[in-house]
Amino acid sequence: MTGRILTVAAVLGIAFLVVRAWPRGMPWSGGTGGQGALSNPGDSVPGAAINDLSVRLGTAKEVRPTGRVREFNLVARKAVWGLVPDRTTEAITYNGTVPGPTIRVTEGDTVRVVLKNELDQETTIHWHGLHVPNSMDGVPPFTQAPVKPGESFTYEFVASHAGTFMYHPHINSVEQIDNGLYGLFIIDPQQPDEPKFDREFSMMLGGWILAEGQAGGQHQMPGAQMGGMNMNYNWFTINGKAFPATPEWVVRQGDIVRVRLVNISNLAHPMHLHGHDFKVVARDGEPIRPELQQVMNTLTVNPGETYDIVFIADNPGVWVFHCHELHHTENEGVEPGGLIQVIRYEGNPAVATAGPQPTPTMPARMPGMGH
Ligand SMILES: [Cu+2]
User: Fold this and answer.
1) pLDDT bracket for residue 333 (50, 70, 90)
2) Domain assignment present for 58
3) Which of 8, 180, 258, 355 could bridge across to 336 with cysteines, CB 3.0–4.6 Å?
4) What phi, psi does 51 have (nearest 5°)?
5) What is the CA angle 97-98-102, rounded to 5?
6) Model confidence pLDDT, tens digit, residues 69-104
7) How far is the CA of 301 from the centre of ligand 1 (A)?
């Protein structure tokens, strides 16, 4: 009994330290009083006043340049990609992988990304959640011309603030994104007071509309499936892989584990963690003030959202962290599959996870079961 109380006290103590160490509280304290003044977007407000308002609102970012330039090359091109070992598709990728390379820089770094378009269609890159100059936002026809096949475009901006973000095209978006053209963008803070995590994992949630029952075979673009054909999302991936191809996360008892959740799909995913609660510490890259951080075990991640959550590995075993829209834990209607992440504590034997896989003879999902 005493031992159990001590364990609970230790866990609470660690959680308290994590919360205390979390950087960058909102620079305004208390209430939403500042927001009322923002309710007249048509008002002509001098720039200084806008800046004051954004400081009060907490959306102003103070960028302290590091002087470093970080260069990345992204090639948009088609590539054969395996969602599970026996299901490949002709994906639209950055550099041949889904997701594309994770771009990880420090707040204040100058980021230079050379995009080369080797697709047979126009594309761009949008920096989702970052405060980039307007001309770098990647949104035709407003901020740039589309990057045509064979052309290149160089994006350059300062990494405005720490957090979890993403990048993706902003033209013909449904086809390009649903076929794999996206990546994670992580900006680390300059301050060394970042909480120390023992483990850090990311999950970029994707949805696919693939021709059914053609393992290893043909891929249809969504547009080709009009006219009564199936337009349902039938494959769901974590970092480009569907269960059981999703690599396990291995943790050790006592670890403080940080997870970055990013939803690039067009569907909401209520992500549910077994055996533990977690605390939501950041949303859309913005740290949540400690007193507002919610403890829960199911977090709905809507399309376009990012969350950072933290849990303490205090319950040894083999657990799952999965989407609770249960169609999303299927591969072509067959469970288990899709958005299932296995978390295995060290010392627990690996579990054979080769679930049933669709075969060409598998009956298609019932009509009307939209996802
Ligand atoms: Cu889901």
Assistant:
1) very high
2) no
3) 355
4) -65, -40
5) 85
6) 999 999 999 999 999 999 999 999 999 999 999 999
7) 9
- Cα 23 to averaged position of ligand 1 atoms, centre (Å): 31
Straight-line distance from the first to the last Cα atom of the chain, in angstroms, rounded to the nearest whole number: 47
Q: How far is the CA of 267 from the centre of ligand 1 (A)?
A: 7
Residue 127 C-alpha to ligand 1 middle, in angstroms? 24
Distances (CA, A) of 329 to 148, 207, 260, 309: 37, 11, 19, 21
Give residue 242 CA to ligand 1 midpoint distance, Å: 12
| 295 C-alpha to ligand 1 centroid (Å) | 20
Q: Residue 315 is part of which domain span? A: 199-345
C-alpha 225 – ligand 1 centre gap (Å): 22
Residue 79 and residue 173 share a domain: yes
Distance, in Å, from the CA atom of 74 to the CA atom of 216, rounded to the nearest integer, reads 27
Q: Is the peptide bond before 141 cis (omega within 30 degrees of 0)?
A: yes
Q: Are residues 269 and 306 in the same domain?
A: yes
Q: Are residues 100 and 227 in the same domain?
A: no
Ligand 1 centre to CA of 216 (Å) is 24
pLDDT digits (tens, 9 = 90+) for 109-147: 999 999 999 999 999 999 999 999 999 999 999 999 999
307 C-alpha vs ligand 1 centroid, how far in Å? 15
